[in-house]
Design a protein that fits this description.
Putative signal peptide protein; mainly beta; six-stranded antiparallel β-sheet; about 10% helix
Length: about 90
């Protein structure tokens, strides 16, 4: 599992006790260069927030929320990611 070594601060009003936040460029650089992850999926959460899933070849995954302000925060991490791909809708 990843340990990014970025500053940790409390998540006010969040069920997650602590989140890791950093400027988006710094977060991306650390995920790519240090941990060998790649962004595999994105989705719009609101006009100001994009959810990103980053995975590595061993199946570790990290969920990031990137904000329009230029800040990104890790909100969840785990192991054994499986890309199920798109199934036939028919």
């Amino acid at each position: 599992m990843l340990c990014l070594g970025l500053p940790i601060g409390p998540a006010v009003g969040s069920p997650i006790a602590e989140v890791i936040c950093a400027p988006s460029e710094q977060m991306t650089r650390k995920l790519v260069e240090q941990f060998g992850t790649a962004r595999r999926a994105t989705g719009l959460r609101s006009p100001e927030e994009v959810v990103e899933i980053w995975t590595d070849d061993q199946g570790d995954w990290t969920m990031i929320i990137s904000y329009a302000s230029g800040q990104s925060c890790i909100v969840a991490m785990g192991e054994h990611w499986q890309d199920l791909g798109r199934g036939d809708p028919a």
